[in-house]
Amino acid sequence: MASAITIRDLRKSYGDVQALDGVDLDVPEGSFFGLLGPNGAGKTTFINVLVGLVRKSGGRAEVFGHDVEDDYREARDRIGLAPQEFNVDRFFPIREVLVTKAGYHGVPADEARERADEVLKRVGIYDKRDTRFDWLSGGMKRRFVLARALITDPDLLILDEPTAGVDVQLRHELWETITELNDSGTTILLTTHYIEEAERLCDEVAILDSGRVLEVASPDELMDRGTDDIVVTLRDAPTAVPDFAAEDDRVEAVELDGTRLVVTAREGGLVAPDVVRRLDAAGHELVDLEISRTSLEEVFVEMTRAEEEGRATMEVGQ
Ligand SMILES: Nc1ncnc2c1ncn2[C@@H]1O[C@H](COP(=O)(O)OP(=O)(O)OP(=O)(O)O)[C@@H](O)[C@H]1O
């Protein structure tokens, strides 16, 4: 599949700070791609390089095959950006802001007005079209920056923390709108601190830490690396249960507390049937079975913590 974003050995330093320290990444065209990382990992810097707000110190960055610096105009015209910080002309009616932006990207005036109405309807603030940005509520402001990103009908939509500080209802509405856009072919690059959001929406995520990519995988692949708890409730409290760990090296721990048995294993969904079979064969009656999967959040915390500990060890060793 062709790449919407191609990044090779991308570097950005601010004085002594290596905000991006040799990033390699391919974001496939049409994908819903998540960029996750703790505060200061380099996510915003990465996005700013793509949209031409920050000059890279080294490496290559292309959007649909256009170099983001040498072919700035071609690359930038394909991107819609909804930034984390609101950087909107506050004094003009929002519809006018959209029309002006479309004009700046070469859209003729009539079409610009049509598009402005269309995107305002799409994000649900058409009735506020004559209001200035300052007078919108926080949630409406979030909707507006999405509308502004959509005004040029971008092939790549970059969303930097699009749901920061919005209520549950709006978050779900925004998810729906973004998913529809992705279904109709728009490539999405999303950064978020709500890991659940990435787990739910993204085909693939890259985990960025200290300016480096630690991992690129689907949320499911990442979650498979963590352990799951298979929680079984038995009718009677047994004195012993089969030695699950001896026959399956995916099993990491077994804990029995009265009638409650917890088997901790990688790929819990695949191990559970065997646990049930063996309990049944040993004459135990099951009352309830529940599998609680590791969340992407746990895997994420584990990975970024390991990276931090690795760095601390290196610093001590130096
Ligand atoms: N203009 C700048 N001048 C100096 N240092 C900067 C500048 N912009 C970013 N940095 C530094 O670069 C590093 C990466 O910052 P960046 O904002 O890209 O991280 P982030 O992953 O987006 O963080 P957050 O999740 O907190 O938004 C940080 O150490 C930050 O302090």
Keywords:
alpha/beta, binds adenosine-5'-triphosphate, elongated, four-stranded antiparallel sheet, 11 helices, single chain, 2 domains, Rossmann fold, Alpha-Beta Plaits, 318 residues
Give a description of the structure.
There is one protein chain. The protein contains eleven helices and 14 strands. It has 318 residues and is α/β, with parallel strands linked by helices. The radius of gyration is 24 Å and the shape is elongated. The chain binds adenosine-5'-triphosphate. Adenosine-5'-triphosphate (ATP) binds at residues 14, 17, 19, 37, 39-45. Keywords: ATP-binding, Nucleotide-binding, Transport. Residues 5-235 form the ABC transporter domain.
